[in-house]
Design a protein that fits this description.
about 675 residues, mainly alpha, six-stranded mixed sheet, two-stranded antiparallel ribbon, 26 helices, about 5% strand
Length: about 675
């Protein structure tokens, strides 16, 4: 049983009293006894067993081997093949009904992928044909290795922007186009190797350092940078800045007003409004998904016809030009590892690999949740990684799962990854027979398509929600946004990740501690400053530590606990040293402890003994109890009566040992 209030009038008066760190009133408590349960150590385990469990939880938290238990050798081989090649899982049960749905979805996303592919390749400062190459081979690889039914893969705006901007810092795509192309393929290879390695080594938790707040700010900033870059095409400017910052871009725009082309501006404005209206219609009513999906291709067709009929290329409207027919030529002979550019391609591959991997997995999981199925993160890493490795050898640049295409794929009723194969076949037909039709496609329409695609990356409601929930996360979001638009894409991302890591570091080195009090009539103990009805227990200071105790925070915890004791003893300026007899540490939330943490417990024990105070530990969990037990064998600093299973049992036992009633401070 918990302490029982003897004087109800005193209790009523206490509720009206003012409160500080330890709100108080004077009353006497009568404590009835409670059965005390023994704290038992965890069962002994060998070091090898502990290491095995730790490695399993670190690298195999999803327990991929569970499906093999109790299976015959033949069945294990089948399950193993299905694990590495998910197409073997859904293909045997594939039906004509599924095929009809996948054909509709595949043709729909192909109508979006073709103009987007050409546009994104230009965004990366690469030949437009590479956008179509990258929409042909990678989807075939993903259909075999990917675990998502809805993910539509191909070039994406953010990865294209980062690839182009990072390589352009050292190599000019205009002066050295061949070298630039070689570095793009090599960066894609390293991105794929990095992505596949994360999946094979099961190190996917590394990408979790890109928090949601970081991604929202980064994506919004990148969307603005991408849109500003399209001003070159939308205004018809020839001599445009090579810098990415918003100030440099806007300065370049207004310094070259003499290059603005009213024909280009008129065409760009018309098609931009048309594309935005189509997007709005599809967002308002998902049944009309085909409106926004088909609008880009329709814009390309109409603008190409307009240029061809009116000879607009002779009146200031720039066009794509001739595109070679044929399938992807091999590019393994173009991979470039020398010439002092190895560091550049490694850095570019790492950054684009992380960004594209994060985007692809996030998109896949989003649509998997809508259809109630699981997407294996490690399989996705391997699929996207091998997709880019093969792509780098077949004239493709960095690809991943695109949100806009995947949303269309989902809304079009895709049932399996077969929709990617249908899209790939459609692009193949385009490459073989339809390339001459794109010769007169104006660049201004490609710019309008890019702006329409990236505008959805600016998620203001999500940013507002972050502001309401966590102000520090909002700072991270804003820093990512401002860093991208005012410094550079990669530096903005690095700043946001650095601030996020600083937040984690602060949480580790400055863990929360709180004073607990009893909720009257119960054996529940809660934060005194949170629950106004909670009452502090006379003569006993109860503290809860809410983090693992280790070398990074043991010194801080020692100092903070000492301050809690001082505040308890000297509250309201009145010395209360004689009242405090016991310090109770609730370790329920302490999941682990190291040698420095054990040293903290020893130091507290010695420090409190000098002040004639007892240290009591409550509910040390498995690993914590085990390490304290091992340390106690050497130093014997913990007695049996200093360990309790619950705070209620500790308070009941300690109160019964007090020689006289204590004046409470509640």
């Amino acid at each position: 049983m918990e302490p029982t209030i003897m004087d109800p009038n005193a209790m009523n008066n206490s509720n009206n009293s003012s409160s500080h760190n330890f709100p108080h009133h004077h009353q006497f408590l009568e404590v009835s006894s409670m059965e005390v349960h023994k704290v038992v150590p965890p069962p002994p385990r060998s070091t090898a067993h502990k290491l095995k469990n730790r490695l399993k939880e670190t690298f195999f938290s999803d327990d991929p081997f569970h499906q093999f238990k109790g299976q015959s050798p033949k069945r294990k081989w089948i399950l193993g093949a299905q694990y590495f090649f998910p197409i073997l899982q859904w293909c045997p049960n594939y039906t004509f009904k599924f095929f009809k749905s996948d054909i509709v979805a595949g043709l729909t996303i192909a109508s979006l992928a073709i103009p987007q592919g050409i546009s994104y390749a230009k965004l990366a400062n690469l030949p437009p044909i590479l956008g179509l190459y990258s929409s042909f081979v990678p989807p075939l690889i993903y259909a075999v290795l990917g675990s998502s039914r809805d993910l539509a893969v191909g070039p994406v705006s953010i990865a294209s922007l980062i690839l182009g901007s990072m390589l352009r810092e050292k190599v000019s795509p205009a002066k050295e186009p061949l070298l630039f192309l070689q570095l793009a393929f090599t960066s894609t290879l390293f991105a794929g190797l990095f992505q596949a390695s994360l999946g094979i080594l099961r190190l996917g938790f590394i990408i979790d350092f890109l928090s949601k707040a970081t991604l929202i700010g980064f994506m919004a900033g990148a969307a603005i940078i991408v849109s500003l870059q399209q001003l070159k095409a939308l205004l018809g400017i020839v001599n445009f800045t090579k810098q990415m910052g918003v100030i440099a871009v806007l300065s370049s725009v207004f310094q070259h007003t003499d290059e603005w082309s009213w024909q280009t501006i008129l065409m760009g404005f018309c098609f931009l409004v048309f594309l935005l209206l189509a997007r709005h219609v599809s967002m308002k009513n998902p049944k009309f998904f085909w409106v926004s999906a088909g609008a880009p291709l329709l814009s390309v067709i109409l603008s190409t016809l307009a240029v061809f009929v009116f000879k607009a290329q002779n009146h200031g409207v720039s066009i794509i030009g001739k595109l070679e027919k044929g399938l992807n030529p091999p590019s393994w002979n173009m991979l470039h590892f020398g010439g002092g550019h190895l560091g550049l391609v490694l850095k570019t591959g790492l950054v684009t690999g992380i960004i594209s991997l994060t985007e692809g997995i996030a998109v896949g999981r989003t649509f998997a949740a809508l259809k109630d199925y699981q997407v294996d993160g490690n399989k996705e890493m391997m699929a996207i990684g091998f997709m880019n490795i093969v792509g780098s050898c077949t004239s493709c640049y960095i690809t991943t799962g695109a949100f806009s295409r995947s949303a269309v794929n989902h809304n079009a009723g895709a049932k399996t990854a077969m929709s990617n194969i249908v899209m790939s076949v459609t692009v193949m037909v385009t490459l073989l027979f339809l390339m001459p039709l794109f010769r007169y496609t104006p660049n201004v329409v490609l710019g309008a398509i890019i702006v329409t695609a990236v505008i959805g990356l600016i998620d203001i409601p999500a940013a507002y929600l972050i502001w309401k929930i966590d102000k520090f996360d909002f700072v991270v979001c804003v820093c990512a946004f401002l860093g991208v638009i005012f410094i550079s894409v990669q530096d903005g991302l690095a700043i946001a990740v650095g601030i996020s890591l600083f937040k984690i570091l602060m949480q580790v080195t400055r863990p929360k501690t709180m004073v607990l009090g009893n909720i009257p009539g119960t054996d529940i103990y809660r934060n005194l400053h949170h629950y106004k009805d909670a009452k502090s227990v006379p003569g006993i200071l109860i503290l809860s530590i809410e983090a693992p105790i280790n070398f990074a925070n043991s010194t801080y915890l020692n100092e903070r606990i000492t301050r809690w004791i001082q505040e308890f003893e000297t509250q309201d300026g009145v010395g209360k040293h004689s009242d405090l007899q016991h310090l109770v540490l609730d370790l329920s939330a302490v999941s682990s402890i190291d040698t420095s943490g054990v040293g903290l417990v020893k130091d507290l024990k010695k420090k409190l003994e000098k002040r004639d105070l007892d240290l009591v530990l409550v509910n040390p969990v498995g690993e914590v109890m085990e390490k304290l037990q091992q340390a106690n064998k050497a130093d014997n600093f913990l007695s049996v009566d200093s360990l309790y299973l619950t705070v209620g049992e500790a308070v009941s036992s300690l109160s019964s040992k007090m020689k006289m009633p204590i004046s409470s401070q509640v």
